[in-house]
Amino acid sequence: MSVIDDAAVTSATPDTGPNTTSRIFGIPIDLARPADLLERITGWVGDGGGARRVMYVNAHVLNQSQENPELHKALTEADLVYCDGYGVRLAAKAMEAEVPHRMTGADWVWGLSSLCETQELSVYLLGGDPGVAAEAAERLHRWYPRLRIAGTHHGYFEIGSEHGQRVVEDINARRPDIVLVGMGSPKQEEWVGRHGDELDTDVLWTVGALFDYVSGRVPRAPAWLSDNGLEWIFRLAIEPNRMWRRYLLGNPVFVSRVMTQARRHHTVHS
After folding, report:
1. Which CDD domains match (predicted)?
2. Cα 179 to the chain's mean position, in Å?
3. pTM of the model
C-alpha cells in the first residue's frame, strides 16, 4: 500500500518562480548542483537555525518510503533531500519532472572534508560496524590533516536504549558542527527524528553506507559502471547475501511504482 497520493508526482510548486525541487513520490528532491549543495549545507553552520536535516534518496530509500510512513514523513520534512542514485533520475524523466543531479557520498565526502578543513568546521562520524567510523576518520585525516574530527561511534545500538542515550551525550559533549549518521535507512532517519531536537549541532546528515567506502572496507564500482547507472550490479556481485533482496526484488518493484505514477501523471496532464 502506498503512502502517497496521486498528486505527488508533480514538480515543484509552479507559482514560486523557477523550480528548486522535483517531487518524486511526494518527496522534494533538490535540483542544485553538488558543489552548490555542499556550500549551502556548510553555510548552515553557525547561522542560528538549529539542527538542519540533510537526507538522500535512491531507489531503495524511495521504495522503503512507500511502505514506511514515518520514513516518508522524515524525508518530506527534511531541510534538504538530494539524489543519490540513477533510479531517481530515471523516475524524474518518466514523470516529466526536472531531473536532479546525482550526488554520491563516496564523491562528496572529499569535497565536504575540504570545505570543513578550510572553514575550520568539525565533523562527528556516527554509524557502521564497530571500528569502521574510526577507520573512515583516520583515512579522511590522511588526506585532510587539518580536518577537525570531533568524534566517532559505531551504529550498533538500539534506538532509545541507554547506550543510545550515551551516544547523544557524547555528541553534545563534543559539540560538532556536522554529524554524519550512517546507520542505513530507515534506522538513520528514525534516529535523527528522535534525537534531532536535543543535539548540539548545526547539521544532521544521513549518509547510509558511506563509512564502509571511506574506510576502504567496501570497494567502489568501476567508473564505467557508476557513470552508467549500473553500480548496483557491482554491489550485488560483491555482497550478494546482503544486496540480493534490495536489487533483484526491489528494482522491479521500484520500476512498477514509477510507471504507475507516470501513467497517472500523464492522465492528469493530458
Report:
1. Glyco_transf_WecG_TagA
2. 13
3. 0.90
